[in-house]
Amino acid sequence: MVTTTRAAGHLTAEQLERFEHDGHLVIEGLYTPEDVALLNETFAEVHRNGPVKGYFNPVPEAKANGDPLKMYPRIMHPHRFNEVARRYLLDPRLEPILTDLFGEEPLATQSMLYFKPPTGRGQALHQDNFYLNVEPGTCIAAWLALDVVDRDNGGLEVVPGTHKMDLFCPEEADASVSFTREYVPPPPGLTPVPVDMQPGDMLFFNGTLVHGSGPNTTTDRFRRSFICHYIGRSAERMSEWYRPILTFTGDEVVIDANEGGGPCGTEAAGPH
Question: What CATH superfamily is the domain 3-52+71-269?
């Protein structure tokens, strides 16, 4: 894992080189404890308020059949109904970093909140652009740790080198350890690398980079994370599920919908 200290504005040449070489970059302490507390309380309040049609559908424990992810499912696109989430999706601290990584103006397409409750399943190794289907180019994720992230509570793993490869057609994941159905085995000679993080650290990674996480094996620790996806201004097409596409000033940008199923013929089934 490559880490670096907090960036002030634009990235250094060394940081850009590391991202190009490994497909990912951790910036430690990019967000303050106050930022982390605000986001955690914001999403705790969303959970207390119950379902949000089309974006969040938790169920009571009595109906969860022992699956904690049914009580604490991920929140899809919270920026579409929550002002705090929208503010962090379009946070001006991210714009110069993403501009450097894309080499052009970044556009915002998606936000997600993962609670990753105790004993919850993980997400099998996958590639984000399999779902976003951005052409030309790819997406970049900004993955913010809201708790301590380690091996015990289902921390992320990445497979450096895959960011320079094409999209892989996935196999079926093991449903006992992954809540998603797609699984991309590491290519021969490449190995998953753990990414342990502290609250406020942010991981940026290329949309072709294979990554995923195992189950949260703890009984008392969440592994909350706020994840946003961005594309470069030169992108001409992407999946229809990720709209409206926004500039960092909040203006909407319209590009063509990528209506096909991608190279595997299955990518149009739904959002990531």
Answer: q2cbj1_9rhob like domain (2.60.120.620)
